[in-house]
Every structure is written in structure tokens, then in C-alpha cells.
What does this fold into?
Amino acid sequence: MREVAYNFAYLDEQTKRMIRRAILKGVAVPGYQVPFASREMPMPYGWGTGGVQLTAACLVPEDSLKVIDQGADDTTNAVSIRKFFQRTAGVAVTEATAEATLIQTRHRIPETPLTEGQILVYQ
It folds into this structure.
């Protein structure tokens, strides 16, 4: 059980709803560029804070999270983001693409084909 000192996955529920609505517009309306004001996150800009916010908005307690950075699971960025969500959401993490329900990646997509039910957040 995680110690509750902040919202699940860090962001407040109103912000998560706003992000999910923006995602839906971006997917549903061809060519629509979604205006998005990034929230303050407890990590440096340039570490993919926009992708982290999308991940936080989509993450549920039952998820298994995989984080890829520059095609690897063991980079400083990937490890830090994975630990961030372990601490703020208490979700399971994995390095196996097939076991992940939510995959956050930067610069590269997984080589393993995704299956139905998996979400890919591409920073």
C-alpha cells in the first residue's frame, strides 16, 4: 500500500480529465492541433514531462507500466519516470513489453508488436 501524500499518479483529477479530453480531441478530429498548457511536475523540463502527464492521466491502479527512453529501459530518464509512478501511483512496473498495459516511450517504439488493450504514450 502506498503512503497517500499526493493524488494518484501525482496530478489532480480535474487536470487528468482535461488531459483526457485533449487526447480525445486530438485523436477524433483529423488535423486538429490540441493546445496544451503543461502543469508543473517534480522533474526537469526536457525529461518528457508532457508524456509523463499523459501517462498520469491514463494510468489506473491495475496497470503495469513500462518506460522506454532512447530505446532502453535502464537510462536515467526511464528509471526516474518508472520510480516516480511507482511512488505516486503504486503501479506494477515491467521491462517486458508484452506484460505492460501502458508503455511510455521517447524516440523509439517497442520492437514487440502491441496487442489489444495496450496503450502507447509517445513523448
About this structure: The chain has one domain: 13-122. The radius of gyration is 14 Å.
